[in-house]
Amino acid sequence: QVQLVESGGGLVQPGGSLRLSCAASGNIFTIYAMGWYRQAPGKERELVARITRGGISNYPDSVKGRFTISRDNAKNTVFLQMNSLKPEDTAVYYCNAYASIRLGGSANDYWGQGTQVTVSS
Question: Cα 96 to chain center, whole Å?
Fold first, then answer.
């Protein structure tokens, strides 16, 4: 199995910045992509940012230009730099890894426990 541990959430004022980190561990063969999703109360979970092993990233329009995702393949770690935060960014942020645990095995989605990000004055 793959375990994901997030850190870096908290309370920040509008216009502020936060940096989230997520480290993957366990019986990992290959992590093909890592990403961040968020879920606000009463809303569905949505993609925030995703990055492939080769470094190709994608973002929804709601965060494009404000959030930057990066990863360290050697350490199985992904980061999310969030700038110019808005109250509507308030949500629980979840780390995701699309990974296989053995050679020739199928890849599956793995999730962290989530970290709260609150943007409020």
Answer: 6
Contact 13, 117 (CB under 8 A): no
Q: How far apart are CA 19 and CA 29, in angstroms?
A: 27
Q: How many residues does the chain have?
A: 121
CA–CA gap between residue 109 and residue 36 (Å, rounded): 12
- Could you report the per-residue pLDDT of 30-45, keeping only the tens digit for each? 999 999 999 999 999 9
DSSP state of 53: T
Strand partners, 57: 51
Q: How many helical (H) and strand (E) elements, i.e. helices and strands, does the chain have?
A: 0, 11
- Residue 49's nearest CA partner among 25, 28, 65, 26 is 65
Give the pLDDT confidence of 17-30 residue by residue, as tens digits: 999 999 999 988 89
Taking residue 63's Cβ as centre, other Cβ atoms within 10 Å add up to 23
